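INFO  loader      accepted 1 record
INFO  loader      residues=119
INFO  predictor   begin
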Amino acid sequence: MRTVRDGLREAAEALCNRDLQERVWLLGQWNHTDAGKPSFDDAVNQVIDELEAPNPDELIGYVLHDETELRAFLRLQNSLNDLVTAIGRHGTFADVKRQGRLWRACIDAARELVLAMAE
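INFO  predictor   done
INFO  writer      dumping tokens
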């Protein structure tokens, strides 16, 4: 059974997978190995909307294991919020690619979360 933690990990992995981003999110070239991988919108929604919490500390024990994961998660959530603010709620992945520094911050934050969740 897929947990909320699994969904977060999959979203973070997709957000730092440049091959998936270029091939699938930008060019729409899905193949059999992409089955079950989140779309850009799904990945962003998982981080921003589905895990929005009035008190993020409550995610520890439910989704996240410790403070290190929480800090990495909050960095990713804040980076994605900044990106969505810049491109608008209906922006496309092509719009994202044009954001340069904001998008790189999201990739770096996603990579940090993936590494934190692997430890």
